[in-house]
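Researcher: I've been going back and forth with a colleague about how Acetoin utilization protein AcuC might be arranged in three dimensions. Neither of us has a model we trust, so I'd like an independent prediction. The organism is Nocardioides yefusunii, in case that matters for your notes. Sequence below.
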Amino acid sequence: MPACTGPSTVVHDAAVAEYDFGPQHPMSPLRVDLTMRLADQLGVLAHDDADPGLKVVTAPMASLELLATVHSESLIEAVQRVSFTGRADLAHGIGTEDNPTFPAMHRASAHVVGATVEAARQVWEGESQHSASIIGGLHHAMPDKVSGFCVYNDVAVAIQWLLDHGAERVAYVDVDAHHGDGVEKIFWDDPRVLTISLHETGQMLFPGTGHPADLGGRDAEGSAVNVALPPGTADAGWLRAFHAVVPDLLKEFDPQILVSQHGCDSHMSDPLTHLMLSVDGQRAAHAAVHQLAHDHAGGKWVATGGGGYSIGSVVPRTWTHLLAEVAGRPIDPETPTPLEWREHVERLLGETGPFLMTDGRTPAYRDWRDGYDPEAWLDRAINATRTAAFPLHGIDPTP
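Model: Here is an independent structure prediction for Acetoin utilization protein AcuC. You can compare it with whatever you and your colleague have in mind.
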């Protein structure tokens, strides 16, 4: 595992908990609170300048001008209006079951964008080698429409900020169980941005997109890459797919900075998806992304959160492992969770928090070069992506 050669940060403050669709909505802000508490109690966060952990940086508020680099004026005005009236605006996707209105909608959503843009700025301007925005990763939001629990697309705004400040090649890797459709669409015609999404097939899961043949616009073919995984894919299959696709593409694309989205709804206990990863498999994914940032992006890495709806048992452990990777100080998976943290989980959620930072799995996978099985749905999915995307990057798709 690469060691960080510079300082690393997490952009966060308590006000991001305003991003709250209500007590019955699966995307609870408690998952961020529980993550930051767990990370703090396990020594991942720094408390002074001498501490080697992650420095916590306050999240600024995104300006209207910054939001407008990606989003339409009509969407921004609609979100502001709904924040005061509470009335649905279905033309902009606001007021649905997935995206109910809430009073602080504009302020809270702009705060998420500000956090992720600050993480990108920290890395691009050299203040941090790695930076995380755990509240971020709202990858479904479209230029003119709220979608999939995502009001503004913080990831896309951060990538656009990087482009506007001199970046010529930005790679985006999305490991959420859902297709990163908003980020892909926003940069569909931009060859400066390579978007790679590994997700459960759209045949089974929202948003129903992200097929291997979806490759980018006419002047940016190959800039979008999609791996549509079969339901039931577990650690070994997921890691096989990741390593069969992502490293070769990043090596060829040669990004100046790597931005990643780490939705952990790929876990076997997540209530909204059908993938079967463990916390250990997700931890291996974080480590792989970290290594690729050093191998192919000069160590410049911006990591965001994303989906994840097993609030007490999965999200805090997985994202604490992510923050530890960002800090360059990975946590031993056999580490016990602190009693104080488990008691806090029980008070908030009425459930017993997990006792260890592991699900007891040892992630291992079969390398793609060791053979392709055309009878296996997973291997057919991997092969479809390699066959469609690799030649557009000058890469031989055969093992």
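Researcher: What would you highlight for our discussion?
Model: I'd start with this: The CA atoms of residues 240 and 367 lie 6 Å apart. After that, consider the following. The beta strands are 8-11, 55-57, 130-133, 170-174, 193-200, 224-229, 257-261, 301-304.
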